[in-house]
Design goal:
single chain, about 500 residues, alpha+beta, 8-stranded mixed beta sheet, 5-stranded parallel beta sheet
């Protein structure tokens, strides 16, 4: 999994933005199952401030509801066997059974929750559009299509709700679709509506809101405030005023688990241990303020990188008549990347919440030492104010470099120490970190005509706090060591507004 942040869309021209009346949310906007309702609600609230509505077509809401109901059925069926053993043993299993009577109850609960979200309008499906959509599906007219080897006809739903939102709009160029679905493009082409305006959730704010890059003082302020919130155990009572992670994505892929096919493997982040970087720190534009109401708070957005721990569980049954066996283990040194919305009042943190999924990745191993250096480069670009040397870009054999850090009264001193594969030491005040690129001989098999069965190069970072870390541990140590002394809070003052603390940190399961 890459450490790179998703490139946000270029801000649309003012003339294009002025024509928009609504953002239309497609079923696949937030993934295959359903929406991230908190993110969607926050987007709808901000869009309302710039007089853009948020529409969810009724068939999209139905599709979300059906997908969520299917997830409920999956969870119910998975626990049915183990619960049977509890019942047979005379233990009441009701406390861990899924909390809805049936799948219809799940559907109705979700539709009610969606309808209750402010600034989101569910666009009702009309009979005329439903008939037209069914006709498109039967006759296989765009955007209808066949799916799977059985050539099942589909697409009638998209055809129907697209007709309704276009009928409601002032014109095809007054809508922006929160989607990457090619069916919308095909429908516009078939109906001679031009080219639809489409963005993914991670791009829509960059397309519509004229965010202002944060100054270096604000970057360090965000770094200080987020650093004060970690280490923190996730899912337990905490002093975090909000949440630091979103829906977990990529955890099992990052760990590259090789389980047997039978059974179930799941996992979640359990702990954030340190801030390891900030990128794309921006300030909310003035146009988001309520007309005539200058707020006493301000909002910043930043892509934050945290060092993280995880717990992985493998549950399986060797035979249908055997009890479920569960194995659990922990992993440390992961990196979790999330776009966060940070609400401030003066220099106090009022609220922090995720506005993206949380992408999990590891430092990994590398095909050559230069790939390893690129990961160091990625990590160090997240240290606020760090001005890397002009000739930076690869391992050097010798020499010393003074690296200024804007917004602080510190200077980092780098001394190259190439060794066998590359390395350097980094001094901040009286503290020192050592970075070494190593080679694992055991990855080579086959003698002189052999090959590496795994990427052989790896990084080792030793700081005063940790031995055997990776590139992101270096960045985390630097952020801690470089905290501007002028803005460091007094003892016992984390910069968090105690009146805003909720006493718990809840989060969607990964």
């Amino acid at each position: 999994m890459s450490s790179k942040t998703t490139t946000e869309s270029t801000l649309l021209d003012r003339a294009i933005r002025d024509k928009l009346i609504a953002v239309v949310v497609d079923a696949n906007a937030y993934g295959e199952v359903g929406p991230n309702l908190a993110r969607l609600a926050a987007l709808a609230r901000d869009l309302a401030k710039i007089r853009i509505q948020t529409w969810v077509p009724e068939p999209v809401a139905w599709e979300w509801a059906e997908h969520l109901a299917a997830q409920w059925v999956l969870a119910r069926n998975f626990v049915k066997g183990p619960l049977g053993h509890l019942t047979a043993a005379g233990l009441p299993p009701l406390m861990i059974t899924p909390g809805y009577a049936d799948r219809d109850a799940v559907i109705q609960a979700f539709l009610a929750a969606l309808a209750a979200v402010p600034h989101i309008e569910v666009i009702a499906l009309t009979g005329e559009s439903a008939v037209a959509g069914l006709k498109d599906q039967i006759l296989q007219q765009a955007p209808a299509k066949t799916k799977s080897q059985d050539k099942v006809k589909t697409g009638g739903s998209d055809s129907a709700w697209l007709r309704d939102v276009l009928q409601r709009a002032d014109g095809p160029d007054s809508l922006l679709f929160l989607s990457r679905d090619k069916d919308i493009i095909q429908a516009y082409e078939a109906w001679k509506r031009g080219k639809p305006l489409m963005r993914a959730p991670g791009e829509v704010r960059g397309a519509l809101f004229d965010y202002v890059p944060a100054g270096i003082d604000d970057q360090w302020l965000v770094a200080r405030l987020l650093s004060s919130l970690v280490p923190v155990a996730l899912g337990e009572a905490t002093q975090v005023p909000g949440q630091l992670v979103g829906k977990i994505d990529g955890l099992l892929d990052a760990l590259d688990l090789d389980w047997e096919e039978h059974g179930w493997t799941g996992g979640d982040l359990t702990r954030l241990t340190g801030l390891a970087g900030l990128q794309d720190v921006v300030c909310e534009p003035p146009e988001l303020h309520e007309p005539g109401k200058q707020p006493d708070t301000r909002t910043l957005r930043a892509t934050a990188f945290f060092l993280a721990d995880a717990e992985i569980t493998h549950a399986y049954r060797l035979d249908d008549d055997e009890p479920v066996v569960e194995e659990t283990f922990s992993r440390t040194g992961l990196v979790a990347r999330t776009t966060l919305v940070v609400k401030l009042q003066s220099d106090k943190l009022i609220e922090v919440r995720p506005d993206s999924d949380t992408i999990v990745f590891t430092g990994g191993t590398f095909e050559d030492s230069w790939d390893a250096f690129e990961v160091i480069d990625d990590a160090l670009t997240g240290v606020p104010g760090l001005v890397l040397p002009d000739k930076w870009g690869g391992w050097q054999t010798a020499g010393e470099v003074q690296i200024p850090v804007e917004g602080t009264d510190h200077t980092a001193e780098l001394s190259w120490n190439y060794g066998e594969n590359g390395g350097f030491s980094l001094m901040i005040d009286d503290a020192e970190a050592e970075v070494t690129c190593g080679y694992d001989d055991e990855t080579w098999v086959g003698g002189s005509d052999g090959f590496n069965v795994e990427p052989p190069y790896y990084l080792t970072v030793d700081t005063p706090e940790i031995s055997g870390g990776g590139a992101w541990h270096l960045a985390s140590w630097m952020i801690h060591a470089l905290q501007p002394t002028a803005t460091t809070p007094a003892s016992g003052d984390s910069g968090v507004d105690p009146t805003s603390q909720q006493g718990e940190s809840s989060r969607p399961p990964g």
